[in-house]
Amino acid sequence: MVPLTDFLLDASLRDDFPLLAQDVHPGQPLVFLDNAASSQRPRQVIDAIVHCYEHDYANVHRGIHVLSERSTDAYELARRKTQAFLAAEHAHEVIFTAGTTAGINTVARSWGDANVHAGDELLLTPMEHHSNLVPWFQLAERTGAVIRHMPMSDDGVLQLDRLDEVLTERTKLVAFTAVSNTLGTINPVEALCRRARAVGAVSLVDAAQSAPHLTTNVQQMGCDFLVFSGHKLCGPSGVGVLYGRETLLETMPPFLGGGSMINRVYDDRFTPADLPAKFEAGTPPIAGAIGLGAALDYLTAIGLERIAAHEHTLVERAWSGLSQIAGIRLLGPAPGGSDDPCRAGLVSFVLDRPHAHDIAQLLDRRGIAVRAGHHCTQPLHDRMGIAASTRASFYLYNTPAEVDLLIAALGEVRERFRPTGRRRRGRIDA
Amino acid sequence: MVPLTDFLLDASLRDDFPLLAQDVHPGQPLVFLDNAASSQRPRQVIDAIVHCYEHDYANVHRGIHVLSERSTDAYELARRKTQAFLAAEHAHEVIFTAGTTAGINTVARSWGDANVHAGDELLLTPMEHHSNLVPWFQLAERTGAVIRHMPMSDDGVLQLDRLDEVLTERTKLVAFTAVSNTLGTINPVEALCRRARAVGAVSLVDAAQSAPHLTTNVQQMGCDFLVFSGHKLCGPSGVGVLYGRETLLETMPPFLGGGSMINRVYDDRFTPADLPAKFEAGTPPIAGAIGLGAALDYLTAIGLERIAAHEHTLVERAWSGLSQIAGIRLLGPAPGGSDDPCRAGLVSFVLDRPHAHDIAQLLDRRGIAVRAGHHCTQPLHDRMGIAASTRASFYLYNTPAEVDLLIAALGEVRERFRPTGRRRRGRIDA
Amino acid sequence: MPSEEEIYQEHILDHYEDPFHNGPLLDATHAHHDKNPLCGDVVRIALKLDPAGKIEDCAFEGDGCVISQASASMLLEALCGKTVDEVKAFTAEDMLKLYGPRLTPNRQKCCLLSWRVIQQAVYSPVER
Amino acid sequence: MPSEEEIYQEHILDHYEDPFHNGPLLDATHAHHDKNPLCGDVVRIALKLDPAGKIEDCAFEGDGCVISQASASMLLEALCGKTVDEVKAFTAEDMLKLYGPRLTPNRQKCCLLSWRVIQQAVYSPVER
Ligand SMILES: Cc1ncc(COP(=O)(O)O)c(C=O)c1O
Ligand SMILES: Cc1ncc(COP(=O)(O)O)c(C=O)c1O
């Protein structure tokens, strides 16, 4: 086990990422801290995509020629790599999708429409991303099911001891994020899946923010569904993964209709294909899946544990530095605040002034890319009584020096907008 | 107007396509005639993707930093390029999707579920791809609507003079392909859209096979929806376009739920965003859309009219050469067979023996990539009384010499499998 | 940071810290509010119009980024005392020019929020 | 074309043109049919089993690619006269070996179609 703090990856791996070596403004080298929105790609992934397009590309499946066979082999190899990455029992439990959002919608429409009825309850958490909220709201509207929320402490930790208040036999689904993209909370996935199963509910883990950073083992988690996106873990944009337990996927009706997902098509009806094709209608993101496979190879070679330890070192440094800034409010649980580490490698905060967007703009001028806004968690922001926050999110290529630049720059920003008894003078150009 | 035949593009444009210059077997240069399944990409498109990932990549929208602004600008520029390519009235009528299949399913679920009721009729053609069948079968099953088919002649031409038999006030939707991916028929899009509108039906044009080859003008077509895929027109895999008329898209409920497609999210409900975000839930295929924009630039610079004329020259040559082969049956209307050219640049055929798959295998051994099977048009194959066919489909980089190779190779294959009074000898290794 | 592109010029910070007529307007005849869903910026503008359609008094309340709040202050300062017709004639272009520094499309939305609100406010009599 | 990888060896073409027991089997006791949805290959195998479980006679009908039809002929030739237990012991590996030339996964499905059908046929008595 890699120790959680004081471990840093060798900064030389930055050389793998061509995009990082640039000045975004004259003399301002890029400090990319917007990884929770989307990560950058190593040369290995870009090369895999280019190699596919320059040497091996053709449509997959059914093609009886060399290129189609090469593409099919590479596409199916990516599926097996994903299976290994998730420790899934079967390769056909891995469905390639357009992303996390597409995966959740597939479950909501296919499993949801077939299994959820009026009065059933769908249990979510107050920290979900809109992508793990809206599909369930839509399902509730179609079926008459009821949306419920797990209790959560003020510092953004789910209160498992109060789970009984909301988790009952009426609960049909427990859907939650493994890591909050705003709070940085790491949720107790295993315990939640176990509790869900105990009442006969199906569990869906939104791993968009965990898969890039923490080891994923769907069998150990005991989840029924798990989703993530390629673009957040060094992979291409436009590809993602839906994992589903074989028995569930098999009993679910197909969702999107089209080529590949069929066995036989008649004049006005069809019979569906076997897994995984059943849920992969149309030409899939071929180069995307192949690039995703290369990304998983890249991360696995470094080791997810080491990546998590590296990021934990960065977030501890960021947390202690940022908390020195007057007027700042840091969101989510403090790193190392309890025995159980539940803090992922990102930190969101609010300054008394200026607004999050001004902070992002001023940091950008110093080369630092952060995200400002509601991060697709409006209900969470409402609950915290804020309209927006600023988020710095780290990945394997970030360095302590970058964290220090963030802290220093933020100190300056806060200083710049401190009330100084200014008086409006009318327009300068007047 | 470029003359339809005897026009050929300069073969030097093959140099733009790195994949084409390879031997797929020792001494067997690639002859890629599987373009209707998926095309190859010019260096310009690959470079656009690589440039995005190496210089400009970040998640789009809302990001207040230089990379996010660059990516957002490039993504929105791709939308405006697509608008121009389609001659659409508004940029926000262009929705980026995962492909043609995703686009059709979006219309079937969003427009369909909201507007189609028991007894309503959905009018299709006998030559549709499974992607333009199954979503409507599913809609019919959900709503109790009825599937109808347009009359078609034996050589695969829609019989507009008999359209009244099936197009009535009960018709809610007319969905058809602009070009058949099996027959090569070019359908009369304008007339069909006009007739649909005359009875108050909505029209959807599957442009998967037309957008790569023929000029598209949605306003002139008068269609309500039009869909196509990037991977078939020199663009990346994993991206496509749904065009919808503004007034329709605006009244339609959202389909996939998630980030970006919302205006405001509350604890158990949401309000949707404006177009086009309303239909672009989650992180879109950013590099995919940018690569698609580059592909449209590439095709437009050459000129769709010139591409169509080039392909028409090739298909006439193929048709006359192939029809000399004994025991061959060519599918679809003959090129130049009527005043009205309704033959696109592909040709499917059946030999008395061997089976389509054996043909593909033997052609592959000679470096020639074709497709064999039902090409995702099982009902059409059923109607023609065949289980499978072989298809050669041309694109701008194919040459007359390649067509001649196909014809010669097919002659050999047919010769090889001609009955010769063989007698089974038991196993050779026995 | 290139000073000619400096978004947060001194006069803007002045407006942010010491805004023109910030607060409620008790005898308002017209009012409207709106928000910028992406940012969470909120602006409410209240106007007191005289029978001739002149803005006798006005005020704004709001919350959000420097650009959205300073621009609201600048807008009211510029239009207070003007007529409804002059408000209508005041274009989005004019607003961006009034603000001064060049803004990216993303931030233009922040700057134009109060402009959108006042254009609506002149049509929105307060119900009593 | 490397001859060692040649899929359509002479003996295979022989089976294709002059198949073993191709046609209906009127007094069949067991039968099954299946298809390869991707290719449209169809194979129906009929068996006449004696009380001891030996294949007294057998025949196939079908339509499809050379591989699927030649392999059906080769399979029946090899198993005719064998017992049901011997059929069950005959693995997919054995079938691919019997066929001979190395096949890509795509084409293996064609080759294994008749094998899948016969494995099912021994459990499928003909109803009269
Ligand atoms: C006519 C037609 N429609 C729809 C499709 C489906 O396109 P995609 O697989 O890119 O979704 C295709 C291509 O396979 C096609 O040829
Ligand atoms: C926790 C969480 N869930 C879901 C998503 C949605 O992922 P995508 O936009 O790739 O579909 C994100 C990322 O934006 C996320 O952080």
From TrEMBL, chains A, B:
Indicate yes or no for the key word Ribosomal protein.
no
The name this protein goes by in its record: Cysteine desulfurase
Write the record's keywords in alphabetical order, separated by commas.
Pyridoxal phosphate, Transferase
- Write down the species: Botrimarina hoheduenensis
**Superkingdom per UniProt:** Bacteria
Pfam families from the xrefs? Aminotran_5
**Into which family does the record put it?**
Belongs to the class-V pyridoxal-phosphate-dependent aminotransferase family. Csd subfamily.
Q: Which cofactor does it need?
A: pyridoxal 5'-phosphate
Q: Which GO terms describe its biological process?
A: cysteine metabolic process
TrEMBL record, chains C, D:
- Can you tell which superkingdom this protein's organism belongs to? Bacteria
Q: Domain NIF system FeS cluster assembly NifU N-terminal spans what residues?
A: 8-123
Q: Name one GO molecular function term.
A: iron-sulfur cluster binding
Provide an example Pfam family for this protein: NifU_N
Q: Which GO terms describe its biological process?
A: iron-sulfur cluster assembly
InterPro entries to which the protein is assigned, alphabetical: NIF_FeS_clus_asmbl_NifU_N
PANTHER family associated with the record: IRON-SULFUR CLUSTER ASSEMBLY ENZYME NIFU HOMOLOG
Protein name, per record: NifU-like protein
**Organism (species):** Botrimarina hoheduenensis
